[in-house]
Amino acid sequence: MEYFSKGVIECDEDNVQRYFCQIVIKTYEIVDCHSFLPAKYNFNKFPEEDRLQYEADAEVSFRAFNRDFHLLLYEDSNFQDLEVSHTSIKRNLTKTNFYEGIVKEHSLDSAVVGYLNDNVFSGSIKEKEVIYFIEPASSFLSAPIDSSKIVVYRSKDVINKHQDHFEANSSESSLNLFPLFKSFRNMSYLPQGIKKESNDTDYTCQIEMVADHTLYEYFKKDSDTLSVFLYLHAKYADVIFRRTDFDGDGFPDNIRIKVKKISIYKTASDPNYPMAKAQDLDSFLNSFSLRSQNYCISFCLSHRSYKATAVGKAFRPESQPFATPGGICQFSIWKRGVKRYLNTGVVTIVNSRKQAMPLITTMLAFTHEMGHLFGSDHDPVNHLICSPGGNLGNYLMYPRTSTVFKPRNSHFSPCSRQQIHWIIQERGECLKSHPGICGNGVRESDEECDCGWEKSCSHLDSCCTPSDAKPPEKGCTFRKNCSPKESKSRTRDCTVDPANGTGATRARQSVLLVCVMACMRLVPNLSIRLIGIRARGP
């Protein structure tokens, strides 16, 4: 095992990928990764005592930072069911799969997200206040190294040396495209709101993720890995939106961002590709709005460097009765014989210095632009409440990126929450209501808890009845009083903690929401950039 107690990555080191020229990794370890996929074996042939040893779809173990890690991982079935379209070719993903899980010895205080490639795990681990990142050593260092080696480091050890900006949101762009809309005295061009009697319903924004041909080439024409990258951005935004209290009632609203389709352009000559030759971010967004689609949001990521420092842009709906079109649920609009789709946003993963940005930056940029599409303006720079700065940092909709990740960076400010709530209520007609699904690991609807199935509940929350429990037990209900995972008022033995009250909370949490969203890349010359987020505000 190699250990670098203060190993600073510098641009002039020959053994370091050039991507790290803008990144400082203060401390990391290179260790062996051991993985096992029980799902590949027929457990009916195993003795019962052997079957019980393997309680997950995949298991990973390694030793780093003077301790052992034993990860229990469960497949993310939504990812495997995605439709991936390459122009006219459609297929399902084949070689990649997502996992969510826990650290076995710290089940209630941990969350893991990642995937396996050639039996090497890439992902992140969140334990209380510590976030560990894991990636293949082969993508971390240029020098030849054993393919089974992984690099492990912590969030506090990663420093981004440069700062990028977000441009002002694009309600102005919408106004430039449709200058007469301001004078209209009807709102026939705007989507309608959700039904008032359904305010307690959980809603989903079904989105399309698009990759242009420059991003496809950057990922060495590997569609599966590129699909992982796109899906990660949506999952990161999903976590932030789910756990946010937009309506101010004190509970998370569980607004979900779900990828419905992934579209990948392979060449500049592909059909239905109006933004192929866009020269700047504005023209890229405006050209992208010409592309035919029918989703709550359609979002495109690219690998294009522009002179301006902005990395993302989107059409923002305005929170007033008579407004320009744009944002979530906006249906197509004809202008001078041309049909446009203004439920769109774009982000480039390359800054104006032609450097690939850390994944933490592109994920925050993506979620920032999603915030615009849901109606949030930028947080006022000098606002004491919505742009407080300090040790906890500024909120997600602050107009500039941060060189060091801070807790507030992945949270919407009070200003943003109020604006987004108005748009959801008044323009969110395409948001899909979703009933609670017992067993998906997310507490929804009238569920008391949701720990998945038996093999996961034994580690995630033994006080919650698993979805595959036998009668008379009912899945997704408390076995004894209440759950320590759903309420601080309960202890690990499922009894009441007198110091913390007597009731369960309505907080809808999942394995992912409790602690972390993580991200990973398996692309040469591009290292993983991961970031975890908590399920509650700072």
UniProtKB/TrEMBL annotation:
Q: What Gene Ontology molecular-function terms does this entry list? A: metal ion binding; metalloendopeptidase activity
Per the record's keyword annotation, is Chloroplast included, yes or no? no
What is one Gene Ontology biological process annotated in the Swiss-Prot or TrEMBL record?
Notch signaling pathway
* Record domain Peptidase M12B: where: 203-435
The reply to whether Metal-binding figures as a keyword in the UniProt entry is yes
Where in the sequence is the active site? 369
Positions bound to Zn(2+): 368, 372, 378
Q: Which InterPro entries match?
A: ADAM_Metalloproteinase (IPR051489), Disintegrin_dom_sf (IPR036436), MetalloPept_cat_dom_sf (IPR024079), Peptidase_M12B (IPR001590)
For this UniProt record, give its keywords in alphabetical order, as a comma-separated list. Answer: Metal-binding, Zinc
Q: Name one GO cellular component term.
A: plasma membrane
Pfam families, sorted: Reprolysin_5
Record-linked PANTHER family: ADAM10/ADAM17 METALLOPEPTIDASE FAMILY MEMBER, KUZBANIAN, ISOFORM A
Q: What is this protein called?
A: Peptidase M12B domain-containing protein
